[in-house]
Sequence to fold (566 residues):
Amino acid sequence: MNRKKLLATLLKALLSILTVLFFVWSYRSGYYQLIFDDPEGFWFLFQQHLKMVLLSSSLAIALSVPLGILVTRPKFKKVQWLIMNTANLGQTIPSLAILALAMTWMGIGFKPAVFALFLYSLLPILRNTVAGIDSIKPELLDAARGMGYKPYQILFKIELPNAAFSIFAGIRTAVVLNIGTAALAYLVGGGGLGDWIFTGIMMRDNIYLLSGAVPVTLLALFADLTLRIIEGFVISKGVRQSVEAD
Amino acid sequence: MIDFNHVTKVFNDDIKAVDDISFHVPEGNIVVFLGPSGCGKTTTLRMVNRLESISEGTISVNGNSVNELNPIELRRNIGYVIQHNGLFPNMTIEQNVMAVPDLLGWDRKKKKDRFNYLMDLVGLNPDQFRKRYPHELSGGQQQRIGIIRAMAADPPVMLMDEPFGALDPIIRSHIQNEFLQIQEEVQKTILFVSHDIDEAIKMGDKVAIFREGQLMQYDAPDEILAHPTNDFVRKFVGKDRALKSLSLHHIQDLVNEQHLNQADETNKQQKTVPIHTNLKDALSILLNQEAEQLVVQSGDNQIGALTIQDIENYLHEKIM
Fold:
């Protein structure tokens, strides 16, 4: 166990050093010059990117979590496989194809990009919500019912708090994926930092490429960190520790 | 206190899980539902707080038919303990124990006092455990919390579904004793599901033996051991029912019935035992050849000497 921990720490340290070295090298080589030369352009694209991610992720959370709750109710247990299979099928379609489909229907611009990202974020959240609620031990629900909890009290006081770890993991996965996938929005005219990335690719210009790609990466890391911090406040210590102990 | 009146439970229109059961549970008694798995004992228990619906017949608590009560109110007034304690991992120990008072809207001061009282009852330090979470506790501690959680709002009736089933034998026996002591103080009416005859004899004021949904015998434990009504009960309680029944009688009972010989002062092979020792333990000491006779002590007085022969006579004349 200790050796494993040591190895993990060493690996982390090594990766961190490499990352720092990469930044120093790329900065010195002037690969981020574009951000400093055109700060307004950068901010415009960055905000576009962020807006797409926030909007599509919020919509996905707003639909997936309630839907996940719904299909875990005893009354709707029978349709659970239908919903889950539909969602799984949706996930097998490549993100690019979804973008293309959205474009044929909604034209080009911001809207189809948000719609495609929204669709793509649904499944991880839905799947984790359902898995989280389904993995709650039946005896907990039996105890709660036997103690006189009403159904909505069971949902809010027992099921959701105990599934929170899984639900949040789903949201985190979806948001981080979403930030990366949003770079493809450029292809349907949705804007965002993808503009620079694709320009960089087409022109074989590292300055464009890295000025777009590195902020996207940092944004994803930052989102992951922020969500983890929020989890620390929202999820009960008892649930986090018992999940980690397993 | 609790009356079962021709209670029947039918699953899926044709499987009779409980078949026309009637009996009365007096206030302050522990009644153990005993039987092999699938005999309907748990279903019978779960019909009392309406976790299972009643197909036919009535169950009444304190004269009120449970079917006419609001199930939520009913459940909040009946303590419920299950085998795997069912503690909520997201809640602290205090929140777990105070779950029902919380639902009932008690104020903070009242909840805190009640928590402290209940924790003292099971010998756990309230301040040490208040903010901890269930997974930080041992199995025995968790089960104690599960029991006091059911007692939190001081319900007159408690349902316990194999509450000690998941514990190892030593801790189980310890918690059983602890629970009996608590019961002397709180005097709840308790329905207790078990598949363990020894537990039933130890815990029950009365034992209800089930088989395939039917009630085979409903009696005090010594009655069941001494006079099983049919072959099933006789087999279920085991060949050693005579020995088991000795654990229900004490030297005091024997002394009340028959005269003991004076202790033979010259005999070196003797041992002194208190008069409240049960006869099974007394017999064990004799069989272990730790002594040839037991000198029975009551307070400071020696009552006389007890031998294997005395115990055998008592068993045959008074018990079996």
Observations:
- DSSP finds eleven helices and no strands in chain A.
- The two ends of chain A are 14 Å apart (CA to CA).
